[in-house]
Q: What sequence folds into this?
């Protein structure tokens, strides 16, 4: 913690730059979700193939994870690949499916040293064996860690999650495990893939797009939303802290006064 704080503040506790705001460590959001958008456009601006943007974006994951871990975020959910992303060109999809094989061998030791635990939210069915093997290996190696949960939303779609939840709920009603009058928001949440996680307090989306893109539709009902024009490969720790600082300035009323 002290190492990162020294980076943020100079002598006499003055900010190193205006882009690195002071935040209140006792008011850090427990769960931050990020839509990592803009890799392809970042690459295009530089005359590079789209896959180069995805590769640079992959490198940014650890940097933001470490920043979140240092300030006390408990869960960091990153939208890595949606159920709709299968529509992209096969060459691009194949490249994306190989990234876990590169990311985890490079970064797993530092993640373990920082007590980070890996998990995945999404459907394993349809993912290539080499992708699953890399992810499952990282999950297994970090399963006893007790720090930040780095949750990759991979082959995930919010509508599919809700439909699957309703199907499971109907089966429970038919079998007698659930009575219709017992169903409320709290009970329905147990049918979501993130049932053991708190709902996100803050959603960050990069690249200037202002939409949810089928991400955590049930869970984001009362989340604070923060958007930036920066593409994901250029999303810095400073911008991450700006999002946290803005979150801390907002009043969360959950529909009340």
A:
């Amino acid at each position: 913690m002290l190492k990162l704080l020294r980076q943020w503040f100079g002598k006499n506790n003055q900010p190193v730059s205006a882009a690195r705001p002071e935040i209140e460590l006792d008011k850090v959001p427990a769960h931050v979700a990020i839509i990592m958008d803009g890799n392809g456009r970042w690459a295009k601006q530089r005359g590079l193939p789209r896959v180069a943007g995805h590769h640079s974006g992959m490198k940014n994951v650890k940097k933001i994870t470490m920043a979140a871990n240092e300030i006390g975020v408990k869960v960091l959910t990153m939208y890595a690949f949606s159920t709709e992303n299968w529509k992209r060109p096969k060459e691009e999809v194949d490249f994306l499916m190989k990234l876990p094989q590169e990311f985890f061998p490079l970064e797993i030791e530092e993640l373990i040293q920082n007590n980070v635990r890996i998990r995945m939210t999404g459907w394993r069915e349809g993912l290539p064996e080499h992708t699953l093997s890399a992810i499952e290996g990282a999950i297994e190696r970090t399963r006893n860690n007790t720090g930040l949960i780095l949750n990759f939303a991979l082959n995930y779609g919010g509508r599919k999650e809700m439909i699957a939840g309703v199907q499971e709920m109907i089966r429970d009603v038919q079998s007698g495990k659930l009575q219709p009058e017992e169903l409320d928001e709290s009970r329905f949440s147990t049918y979501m893939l993130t049932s053991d996680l708190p709902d996100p307090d803050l959603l960050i989306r990069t690249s200037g797009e202002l939409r949810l893109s089928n991400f955590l539709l049930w869970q984001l009902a009362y989340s604070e939303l923060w958007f930036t024009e920066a593409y994901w490969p250029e999303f810095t720790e400073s911008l991450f802290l700006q999002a946290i600082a803005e979150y801390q300035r907002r009043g969360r009323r959950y529909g009340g006064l």
Observations:
- The chain is about 40% helix and 15% strand.
